[in-house]
Amino acid sequence: MPAITSLPLMEQFYTIQGEGLHQGKAAVFIRLGGCDVGCVWCDVKESWDAAKHPPTLVSDIVAEAKKSPARLAVITGGEPLMYDLTYLCEELHKAGFILNLETSGAYPLTGKWDWICFSPKKFKEPVAEFPKQADELKVIVFNKHDLKWAEQYAQMVRKDCVLLLQPEWDKEKEMLPLMVEYVKSNPQWRISLQTHKYMDIP
Questions:
Q1: How many domains does the chain have?
Q2: Is 88 in a helix, a strand, or coil?
């Protein structure tokens, strides 16, 4: 298979990681266009149509990333695993980056990663082998039933996988009190908040 040397880049920016275990770290975000998972509450629906985002050379993506002082890169989407990310990972690793992936797990894993954030969605089931590859399970809580739904994935991931519950932004006031009580009763879980939205940064 020839290397994938260009990818549909929606946006690339330097910011603070707002979510998950690595929350608070400076990071280069590389957001790829294209997604067929279709979360109704997605806050980047403009990423769904890959055709709207021009193919960008991996070499240009890496060159832009190197302009930032941090050496943490977060690859997200859309659904980034719609594409073979082997070459992107190779080139970013050569440039000295630690690589974090954010994915629904709906496609097989490609590339070599330092951290995999697996955020399964009800709208498209993850591939069977994906849960065991996750370093972090992040379940978005849109309604109270999602707390029970999260448990089925907690049974599938490795024992050392970090378990995170994150309220959907528009439902935060409603869901957070339920989540607090849930985590107090189920302390294997932690709460993740979208802190970048509190900080008003991308």
A1: 1
A2: helix
